[in-house]
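Exam revision sheet. Question 4 asks you to relate a sequence to its structure. Input first:
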Amino acid sequence: MGGDHSTPLGAIRAVSDKFKGDFGVLHIDAHADLRKAYQGFKQSHASIMYNVMTDAKKPKKVGSSWHP
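Answer key, structure tokens:
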């Protein structure tokens, strides 16, 4: 989807509704974006994949391509 890190969660939830959770997400970024919050903000650019993986409508699989 690209672009802003905060927008994919809504789209992922919609895909989850349509496919009943039977789908995967491939995350390609320079960072894992797995922080629970960044500077106190839970919907941060640094938290998108944490939010995807802990959401009630999470995908069956999440793949990542990033370099620590």
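Marking note for examiners. Residues 27 and 46 are 13 Å apart (CA to CA).
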